[in-house]
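seq as requested:
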Amino acid sequence: MGWRMVMGISRSGDRRPRVGDAPSRLKWDPEDYRRHSMPQLKSALELIRRMELRGNEHLLDIGCGDGKITAILSTLLPEGRVLGVDASEEMIEFASKRYPKDRYPNLSWRVVDATRLPFHGEFDVVFSNACLHWIADQRPVLSGIERSLRPGGKVYLRMRGRGELGRLEAILMELIMSARWREYFSRWSGGFGFHDPEDYRAWLSEAGLRPVRVELTRSYAAFRGREGLAGHIRTTWLPFTLRIPEEEREEFIYRMVDRYLEDCPPDAEGMVYIPSYRLEVEAYKPDRRRYTIRVRQDQRGGTEVLFKNYMEEVVDSTLEEILSRRDDVCKCDRCKLDIKALALNHLPPKYVVTDKGYVYTKVNELESQFKADVTVAVTNAMKVVRKNPRHDKD
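struct tokens:
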């Protein structure tokens, strides 16, 4: 996964990365990351199990890292297309070699900054796991996701969320502020890009996305002993460890590890557990195309706006769903047309919106009740057509 960084200038004149500001490049060791990223893989597989895929979607994976998760996604979409993007050239080069086109024909790779997504209406699904928490201001990311999606497209995100500061993060903060290490963090912007559900729901809405599920959950990452935890910090905490000169970096990492193990020793099987809060996001891009508008000027100069195509779409789908469960209604084309016409004519008048300027706002306000009203209208229309069928008269 590629993180957004900025090269800050310390008092000594060294150029060092800061967390959560403008993007720049980090030097990655993809093979080392691959060996120490099992918690990320476990988290991704949990998220994938929640996804509803047909197998033909075009999917964008933001922060694809070494590519193993993106490759799994490509096997679930045999008739679709998957693009893995990451800000790290090293990661993209590694992924493209490890998962080549001859073995994964529907999979491709590209170096892209998550805050500058260049896509427009190309994807049915946007996926990101264990990446976006390193971006402090995620609003540009969400705006880019909205642009990248086709109408009706889905969003599945998982990242660290805001909660009680974990013990490992607390140790990191203590080390950063200590006399031994503070000179390397003199221009550090401070804090983490962890957010709560309330903020995220608001940002989704601002970006034009509609939240489905935004939850903060408690989770645990497991590592095998001291070396496993050190490997995790070495390969995924680069925004902090790269501020330390290379000859002192291992000392910094093992200070963190040993302090943590003093408070949270391994279990009987030698496993070390790190608790954290995880923000899980499911959303979608509303399909505005459903609301094909017919405008008619009335005698008073006002505007009548009727969402005819959307109404017909819901009436059609509701009619077919009810007919599939009933054997007492004629299913010939003539009777179905009569039922549809009656249902449309007897929908409540509130579904005709008289203020064109608030057309989408009105639809969003009314949509939750609209399908229930359609079901009532279709059911009543069926009763009328059953009593007076026209199929035997034409």
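The first strand starts at residue 5 and ends at 9.
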